[in-house]
Amino acid sequence: AAARLRTTLATGYMLRLLLALATADALLLLAPRRLASRRAGLASMTLEISPPDGFVWGVNLDEGSPPPPSPPPSAALLFDCDGVLVETEELHRVAYNMAFEEFGLQIAGAPVVWSKEYYSFLANTVGGGKPKMRYHFTGLGAPEGARTHQDTAKVWPAPTARGGAVPADEAAGMALVDELQDFKTECYKQLVTKAGPRPGVLALMDSAIAAPGIAVGICSASTRGGFEKVVDAVVGQERLARLDVVIAGDDVSRKKPHPEIYNVAAQRLRLSRADC
User: Considering only CA atoms, which of 145, 164, 141 is closest in space to residue 154?
Assistant: First the structure.
C-alpha cells in the first residue's frame, strides 16, 4: 500500500510539473549563439515545485515563445578584415611610416618609407605586420616562389631617434620589429576610427547570420590590438556577439597567405575546409 501511495504521489507530481512547464512555455534546450541573442529581452521567472521525497527543484522558465534551436552549420562564410570588411590597407601603410619616422629609421642615411606601390606588394606577399617588416629588412619569410621587389632593403635599419645602433643579429632586429609594431598599432588605432565598411558587406554578413545552417566568422592577419579596434568600430559589438568564430593573427603561427587561419576556423566550426 505504501509503495502504491508513493507511485501515485510521484505520478501526480510529474503531471503537475509537465503542466507547469507547458503552461509557462519553458525553454529547456538552449540553442547556440543566435538563439541566445534573439531571446534577449525575454522576461524570466523561476518555478519551484516540491516533489514527494522532499527535494526542491528550481526550473528557469521564459515567458513568450522562443524560436526553435538553430541547426548545426553545414557551411561557413569567413570574412577577412583588411580590404574585405573595410578598406584599411592605406591606413596600415600610413601607420607603419609613422612608426618608422618616430624611430628615425634610416638605411644608408636615407629614411625608411613604404610607398603605396611597395606596400601593395608586401600586402600580397607576406601576411602580418611583423613578418612584413622582417621580410623588408632581411628578405626572409616570403612563401617559396614568391616574386621579389627592388625596394626590399634586405638590411637592418638604424633607429637614429632611439640610439642609432643597427641591430647586430636577427634577435636584436626582431626586438626592434616588436617595438615598431607596438607603436604602429597605437597609430593605427587612432587612424582606423575614420574608416567605414565597404559597401554592402554588412548586409551580406547580416544575411549570412540570419540564414540557417551557415556559420559566420572573421579571420584577420592583423594583430588583435589593431584588429579589435577595427571590428568594434565597423562591425559593432552587437553583430560581433552573433558570430561563430573570430580569429586574429596572434592566434596562429603562420600568417597569410598561408591558409592556417582558415584551417583553424574550419576546425573550430567542425567543418571541412571545402565547406568554408
Answer: 141
Q: C-alpha distances in angstroms, 126 versus 166, 222, 231, 266?
A: 24, 12, 22, 22
Handedness of CA 53, 58, 59, 62 (dihedral sign): positive
**pLDDT above 90 (res 268):** yes
How far CA 58 is from CA of 21, 49, 51, 61, 67, in Å, comes to 12, 7, 11, 10, 23
CB 244 within 8 A of CB 33: yes
Q: How far is residue 194's CA from residue 131's CA, in Å, rounded to a whole number?
A: 26
Residue 224 in contact with residue 250, Cβ under 8 Å?
yes
- Record the cell numbers describing residue 84, joined without a space: 574585405
Q: What is the 3-state secondary structure (H, E, C) of 261-272?
A: HHHHHHHHHCCC
Contact 168, 176 (CB under 8 A): no
In three-state secondary structure terms, 91 is helix
Strands 245-247 and 214-219: parallel
Question: Is pTM, for the whole model, over 0.85?
Answer: no
Closest alpha carbon to 105 in 81, 79, 136, 63: 136
Q: Which residue has the cell 549570412?
A: 208
**Residue range 216-254, pLDDT digits in tens:** 999 998 888 778 888 888 899 999 999 999 999 889 998
CA–CA separation, 6 and 2 (whole Å): 6
Catalytic residue IDs: 80, 82
